[in-house]
């Protein structure tokens, strides 16, 4: 018989697992890993409201994508175009970024699988006589290691030609040159830290769902158990 067990700690772990998976996925897909040096507006680009030139803009570069501004024939009309610069895996700008993409993708897939499974932990608390929370916590720890490897290798690719075109000639491995780090990189770091927090917190979720109070509720014949 399925017993639906909901506790504060198990629900918090489930929510954090889902948030971490989405945060890492969004960061990976974003082009805002590097913010390039400011590029001046064309002399023909005039702001109709002020009559002056528009402010310089900063193109952004991701692991496999980029955002840049395209000027049109009409005055003051400029669109920001975002999309992948690499049509295939081999076209990613640096071998280090290719390795980063692999490690991050593996870590994110594990996190997404755990996030999916975590939704069902309210009803299923064990699998093959092993706590599903402990199994998921172990997988989150492994995912965190993949994420760390990817984030360590990523700055090694700052010396590639693509990064130099955005960050200037002084850009090199682990040196940003004229670029700055974008929100996607910081989100990936924050998500990695939360991944390990989730891995540790899974043990608390397992303790909460197997406590004496829960067992007493089960012995009383309750199928829906909600505890603080």
UniProtKB/TrEMBL annotation:
Membrane-spanning ranges: 12-35, 96-120, 132-154, 183-203
Intracellular or extracellular location(s): Membrane
Any GO CC annotation of this UniProt entry: membrane
Database matches in InterPro entries: LHFPL (IPR019372)
Pfam families recorded: L_HMGIC_fpl
Entry keyword set: Fertilization, Membrane, Transmembrane, Transmembrane helix
Membrane topology note: Multi-pass membrane protein
GO BP annotations listed: single fertilization
Similarity comment: Belongs to the LHFP family.
The protein's name in its UniProt record: LHPL2 protein
């Amino acid at each position: 018989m399925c017993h639906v067990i909901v506790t504060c700690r198990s629900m918090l772990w489930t929510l954090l697992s889902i948030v971490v998976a989405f945060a890492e996925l969004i960061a990976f897909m974003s082009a805002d890993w590097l913010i390039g040096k400011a590029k001046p507006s064309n002399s023909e680009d005039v702001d109709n409201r002020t009559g002056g030139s528009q402010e310089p803009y900063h193109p952004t570069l991701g692991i496999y994508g980029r955002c840049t501004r395209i000027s049109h024939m009409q005055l003051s009309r400029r669109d920001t175009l975002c999309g992948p610069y690499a049509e295939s895996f081999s076209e990613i700008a640096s071998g280090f970024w290719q390795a980063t993409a692999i490690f991050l993708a593996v870590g994110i897939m594990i996190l997404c699988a755990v996030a999916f499974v975590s939704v069902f932990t309210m009803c299923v608390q064990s699998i093959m006589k092993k706590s599903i929370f402990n199994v998921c916590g172990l997988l989150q720890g492994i995912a965190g290691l993949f994420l760390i490897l990817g984030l360590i290798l990523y700055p090694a690719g700052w010396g590639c030609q693509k990064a130099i075109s955005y960050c200037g000639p002084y850009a090199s491995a682990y040196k940003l040159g004229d670029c700055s780090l974008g929100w996607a990189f910081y989100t990936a770091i924050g998500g990695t830290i939360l991944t390990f927090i989730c891995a540790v917190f899974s043990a608390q979720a397992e303790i909460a769902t197997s406590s004496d109070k829960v067992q007493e509720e089960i012995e009383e014949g309750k199928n829906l158990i909600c505890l603080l």
